[in-house]
Write a structure and sequence with these properties.
The chain has 323 residues and is of the alpha/beta class. It is elongated.
């Protein structure tokens, strides 16, 4: 068992965690990034990325995360291949234990553990991910310009995704397992008023159907939740919009969370209720959930961590001088 100490400990290695590492390293904080179960975050399972600033051509998600990691290491970040199993936020120093028993201690802690889209768990879903099946309309809707698309879900996320997709498609179908939506009334009004959106009630997706020639999504197999009747619908793209699950299990009982399990921060900042502990990226953002916004909040977390340490060190010097 080894104890690793740093001025800034970062848990998570997606755009938020690596951006925090880049800024923290450049400030001389010698950050440690514990990479977690999915090094690189959700972008490592995203193929074409067309909306990250700075690249005129489509880039690959895994490549972008490799470049971010290389940049973080180049400026002085230590990357650890480990998964945190417990944390103690009673510090500073804040303490995290890896699944192999190694201990990580940080004078500041940046939480960038992200969130995962919830999936239906039906046949063809994972096989066709990136081949017509997606969980992010703002990420992938552009690829379905002029095509027929479906959104599966009935909450705010589903309605927002359906409305967003009308920017690219004039044939959007919302499929919901019940006969009424859970989304806010104002969103429902916009949805029902839109001429390019059709709502299909009381249906669940049993299977995503692949085109045998292309291997791409060609349709959905549906079952009626009232009658049990089976049917099929032809689509070019399907967006699963049944919510996200933030990776916050580690922090239950130690940090405040909202009803969805997202970490609560001071509005407009990455500051949690514990001084010196910061949360950035999708673990605290259930609204935007984009790589570029995650990177931005990672930058904010590093800058705030640097200020926190500077103020604490200045106060300690003053106390010593007075004593």
């Amino acid at each position: 068992m080894t104890t690793h100490t740093t001025r800034m400990l970062i848990i998570g290695s997606g755009p938020a965690g690596l951006s925090a590492a880049i800024y923290g390293a450049r400030a001389g904080m010698q950050p440690i990034v514990v990479q977690g179960l999915q090094p690189g975050g959700q972008l490592t399972i995203t193929t074409d990325v067309e909306n990250y600033p700075g690249f005129r051509d489509v880039i690959q998600g895994p490549w972008l995360m490799q470049e971010m990691q290389a940049q973080a290491e180049h400026v002085g970040t230590r990357m650890m291949w480990d998964t945190i199993t417990s944390v103690d936020l009673s510090g500073p120093p804040f303490r995290a234990v890896g699944d192999g028993g190694d201990v990580y201690e940080g004078d500041t802690l940046v939480i960038a553990t992200g969130a995962q889209a919830k999936w239906l768990g039906v046949a063809g879903e994972q096989e066709l991910s990136g081949k017509g099946v997606s969980a992010c309309a703002t990420c992938d809707g552009f690829f379905y310009r002029g095509k027929k698309v479906a959104v599966i879900g009935g909450g705010n996320t589903a309605v927002e995704e359906a409305l967003y997709l009308t920017n690219h498609s004039d044939d959007v179908t919302l499929i919901h397992r019940r006969d009424s939506l859970r989304a806010e009334k104002i969103l429902q009004d916009r949805l029902f008023d839109h001429p390019n959106i059709t709502t299909v009630w009381n249906k669940v997706v049993e299977r995503f159907i692949a085109d045998p020639q292309t291997g791409e999504l060609s349709g959905l197999a549906l079952t009626d939740t009232v009658t049990g009747e089976s049917s099929e619908i032809a689509v070019d793209g399907a967006f699963v919009a049944i919510g996200h699950a933030p990776a916050t299990e580690l922090f239950k009982g130690q940090l405040q969370m909202d009803d969805g399990g997202y970490l609560i921060v001071e509005p407009g900042t990455p500051k949690t209720a514990i001084p010196g502990v910061f949360a950035c990226g999708d673990v605290m953002d259930h609204t935007y959930r984009q790589a570029v916004t995650a990177a931005g909040t990672g930058c904010m977390a590093a800058l705030d961590a640097e200020r926190f340490l500077a103020e604490r060190e200045f106060a300690a010097k003053k106390a010593m001088a007075a004593g």
